[in-house]
Write a structure and sequence with these properties.
The chain is mostly helical and about 100 residues long. The chain has four helices and no strands. It has a single domain (about 5-104), classed as Up-down Bundle (Four Helix Bundle (Hemerythrin (Met), subunit A)), CATH 1.20.120. Helix content is about 65%, strand content about 0%. It binds zinc ion. Zinc ion (ZN) binds near residues 76 and 79.
Protein backbone atom coordinates (compact mmCIF):
# COMPACT_ATOMS: atom_id res chain seq x y z
CA UNK A 1 0.00 0.00 0.00
CA UNK A 2 1.43 3.36 -0.96
CA UNK A 3 0.31 6.40 0.94
CA UNK A 4 1.81 9.75 0.32
CA UNK A 5 2.72 11.57 3.49
CA UNK A 6 -0.06 14.04 2.83
CA UNK A 7 -2.72 11.33 2.48
CA UNK A 8 -1.47 9.67 5.63
CA UNK A 9 -1.70 12.90 7.60
CA UNK A 10 -5.16 13.59 6.23
CA UNK A 11 -6.43 10.15 7.26
CA UNK A 12 -4.90 10.52 10.71
CA UNK A 13 -6.33 14.00 11.10
CA UNK A 14 -9.82 12.63 10.46
CA UNK A 15 -9.19 9.87 12.98
CA UNK A 16 -7.97 12.39 15.57
CA UNK A 17 -10.90 14.71 14.99
CA UNK A 18 -13.28 11.81 15.45
CA UNK A 19 -11.51 10.72 18.65
CA UNK A 20 -11.46 14.29 19.95
CA UNK A 21 -15.22 14.47 19.39
CA UNK A 22 -15.78 11.11 21.10
CA UNK A 23 -13.73 12.09 24.15
CA UNK A 24 -15.53 15.44 24.33
CA UNK A 25 -18.96 13.78 24.10
CA UNK A 26 -17.93 11.27 26.74
CA UNK A 27 -16.69 14.02 29.03
CA UNK A 28 -19.97 15.90 28.62
CA UNK A 29 -21.96 12.78 29.41
CA UNK A 30 -19.84 11.93 32.45
CA UNK A 31 -20.11 15.49 33.72
CA UNK A 32 -23.89 15.18 33.51
CA UNK A 33 -23.64 11.96 35.55
CA UNK A 34 -21.78 13.76 38.35
CA UNK A 35 -24.83 15.98 38.85
CA UNK A 36 -27.27 13.06 38.99
CA UNK A 37 -28.14 11.64 42.42
CA UNK A 38 -27.18 8.10 41.33
CA UNK A 39 -24.12 9.29 39.32
CA UNK A 40 -25.56 7.60 36.24
CA UNK A 41 -25.08 4.23 37.96
CA UNK A 42 -21.31 4.70 38.53
CA UNK A 43 -19.73 4.86 41.93
CA UNK A 44 -18.13 8.28 42.49
CA UNK A 45 -14.53 7.00 42.37
CA UNK A 46 -15.08 5.20 39.08
CA UNK A 47 -16.80 8.25 37.67
CA UNK A 48 -13.88 10.46 38.70
CA UNK A 49 -11.42 8.09 37.02
CA UNK A 50 -13.50 7.93 33.85
CA UNK A 51 -13.58 11.73 33.75
CA UNK A 52 -9.79 11.85 34.12
CA UNK A 53 -9.36 9.40 31.24
CA UNK A 54 -11.74 11.39 29.06
CA UNK A 55 -9.94 14.66 29.92
CA UNK A 56 -6.59 13.09 29.05
CA UNK A 57 -8.10 11.87 25.78
CA UNK A 58 -9.37 15.35 24.93
CA UNK A 59 -5.98 16.87 25.80
CA UNK A 60 -3.93 14.26 23.91
CA UNK A 61 -6.00 14.49 20.72
CA UNK A 62 -6.10 18.31 20.87
CA UNK A 63 -2.30 18.40 21.25
CA UNK A 64 -1.85 15.99 18.34
CA UNK A 65 -4.08 18.16 16.14
CA UNK A 66 -2.05 21.21 17.15
CA UNK A 67 1.21 19.41 16.30
CA UNK A 68 -0.30 18.63 12.90
CA UNK A 69 -1.01 22.29 12.24
CA UNK A 70 2.51 23.17 13.40
CA UNK A 71 4.04 20.49 11.20
CA UNK A 72 5.68 18.58 14.06
CA UNK A 73 3.21 15.70 14.07
CA UNK A 74 4.51 12.13 13.79
CA UNK A 75 7.99 12.92 15.12
CA UNK A 76 9.11 11.32 18.36
CA UNK A 77 9.32 13.80 21.24
CA UNK A 78 12.37 12.11 22.69
CA UNK A 79 14.59 10.80 19.91
CA UNK A 80 13.35 12.96 17.02
CA UNK A 81 12.79 9.97 14.70
CA UNK A 82 9.62 9.57 12.67
CA UNK A 83 7.01 7.53 14.50
CA UNK A 84 6.03 4.55 12.29
CA UNK A 85 2.66 4.96 10.56
CA UNK A 86 1.48 1.62 11.92
CA UNK A 87 1.84 2.99 15.46
CA UNK A 88 0.07 6.23 14.61
CA UNK A 89 -2.81 4.30 13.07
CA UNK A 90 -3.30 2.49 16.38
CA UNK A 91 -2.56 5.48 18.58
CA UNK A 92 -2.84 8.67 16.52
CA UNK A 93 -2.10 10.87 19.53
CA UNK A 94 1.22 9.07 20.26
CA UNK A 95 4.00 11.52 21.15
CA UNK A 96 6.91 9.12 20.98
CA UNK A 97 8.00 5.93 19.29
CA UNK A 98 7.64 2.48 20.86
CA UNK A 99 11.31 2.10 21.98
CA UNK A 100 11.20 5.50 23.73
CA UNK A 101 7.82 4.71 25.26
CA UNK A 102 9.17 1.44 26.63
CA UNK A 103 12.19 3.17 28.10
CA UNK A 104 9.65 5.22 30.07
ZN1 LIG B 1 11.78 7.82 20.01
Amino acid sequence: MTHTLENRTEALRELLERQFQQHTDQLTELTVHTRQPDHGGHDPDTLRRLIEVAQQGVAATAQALRRMSEGTYGVCDRCGQDIPTARLEILPSARCCVPCQQRG
